[in-house]
Amino acid sequence: MNDIIRYIAKRLVIGVLVVLFVTVLIFAIMQAMPGDPVDLMVDTRVSAEKVMEIKAQWGLDKPPVVQYFYWLGNIFQGDFGTSISLKQNVTDLIAQRLPYTLMLTGAALIIEYLLAIPLGLLAAVRKNRLTDKALTITTVVLWSMPPFWLGVLLMMIFSIKLNVLPLSGYSGFISLILPALTLALPALAQIFRLTRSEVLDVMDEKYVTTAYAKGIDNRKVLIKHVLRNALIPVTVMFFLSLPWLIGGAVVVENVFAWPGMGQLLWKGIAKQDFVIVQGIIFVITILTVICNIIGDMISGILDPRIRLE
């Protein structure tokens, strides 16, 4: 029990350090970006005095180090500042958009695992046969597809040609199907290959051979002995996959005009609204660190050898 507590405490400390490092990196990148966000707010005829007044209002006249610590202190109080282009509180904007992003990534994650695990098991059972080769090739093709191209392809088939699903925007659960599939299908290959590999490794274990020798039904052996043990790394990967899906959602949300954080981030980048960009990237970082910590905890609990290492 003490080993588990020490392991979790160590991961939490590392997570905090990672978050602090990322805040420095985010701020440095935003400072290095060309252009001045104030120029987007004012007309070219505005006097230099007025421009300086606006910079002072937004705290842009202070040294970068002072700006960083001011921003860091505010975000740990839940205040991400005010959007330069939208003139709205960024915390409120993120709070409005975050549920849609989590809805999209959650649905994509469920679809990904519901398809990948049984297909990976089937491919492993039929190793080197036509079914295995066909599934492997299909998943590699899906993995190779750019999300924006796959999204447009699905829109052309199901929205324009068949007219069975909404083209874009959010109008209820049915409008979630296409963007969730677009996000899930390319990521399917990773979980498929992991499941297939783990199942093949477990099937070579002696206790599986013993179970077959005892005459236990093939389906029971696959589910109770093989799949149960093979799913340990797959379960850990469930939490590690979420941050990657959130990152990929930036493109998918813009393709389908989905009202999530990705679309807001894209607008913030286009308008050089660094307040929005910093806030959203910080939230994505927090979600990534939390998911990684949960994944590490689960792997440490399921496999004591990891804690000893």
Quick synopsis:
With 309 residues, the chain is mainly α. It is 78% helix and 0% strand.
List the helices and strands and how they pair.
Layout: H1 2-32, H2 37-41, H3 48-58, H4 64-75, H5 90-125, H6 130-144, H7 147-161, H8 177-203, H9 206-213, H10 218-255, H11 261-270, H12 274-302, H13 304-308
Helix pairs in contact: 1-12, 5-6, 5-8, 5-10, 6-8, 7-8, 7-10, 8-10, 9-10, 10-11, 10-12, 11-12
Brief descriptors of the model:
13 helices; 0% strand; flat; MetI-like fold; 309 residues; 78% helix; mainly alpha
Describe it.
The chain is an all-alpha fold. The protein has helices at 2-32, 37-41, 48-58, 64-75, 90-125, 130-144, 147-161, 177-203, 206-213, 218-255, 261-270, 274-302, 304-308. It starts with a helix and ends with a helix.
Mean pLDDT: 81
Which regions contain 5 or more consecutive residues with pLDDT less than 50? none
Beta-strand residue fraction = under 5%
> What top-tier CATH class fits best?
Mainly Alpha
Structural class call reads: mainly alpha
Number of strands: 0
CATH homology group: MetI-like
Q: Tell me what the CATH architecture is.
A: Orthogonal Bundle
Oligomer: single chain
**Helix segment tally:** 13
The largest pleated sheet is described as:
none
Binned, the helix content reads over 70%
Envelope shape: flat
Q: Cα-atom Rg, whole angstroms?
A: 24 Å
- Reading the helices and strands in chain order gives HHHHHHHHHHHHH
Distance between the termini: 16 Å
The CATH topology corresponds to: MetI-like fold
Count of domains: 1
